Amino acid sequence: MPDSQSHNSNAAEVQPPKFSGEKIAAAEAQIFEQSKRIEFYLTEYSVEYLASKMRDGDFQIPVYQREDTWEPQRKSRFIESLFNGASDPIFVLLGKPLDRET
């Protein structure tokens, strides 16, 4: 059977908040001011379309993009899986905002 004194000592361990409501509100306001909105949308493109965009130079690969890491056999199996109707992979593309002044 639990001891009533040990139960009361646990209740005494509860600490009051370390920050006042005013400090918490100020921190939340600062977070809100410094946050950025990220807009995104999902769409589907065919492999042929993406390949033509790459060929035409419509995509720019940033200098920090990792090097080509797939060995030829793995590339071949990937292409074969596309021909066999396997689901297309997911690509993440980052777009620049349109320059509305031009």
Poorly predicted regions are none
User: Strand percentage, roughly?
Assistant: under 5%
**Spatial separation of the terminal alpha carbons:** 79 Å
Number of helices: 4
How many distinct beta strands? 0
List the defining traits of the structure above.
single chain, mainly alpha, 4 helices
Written account of the structure:
It is a single chain. This protein is mainly alpha-helical and 102 residues long. The chain has a domain at 38-102. It is 43% helix and 0% strand. The chain has four helices and no strands. The chain has helices at 4-12, 21-34, 47-55, 72-83. 0% of the residues are buried.
Topology:
Layout: H1 4-12, H2 21-34, H3 47-55, H4 72-83
Structure at a glance:
43% of the residues lie in helices and 0% in strands. It is an all-alpha fold. The chain is elongated.
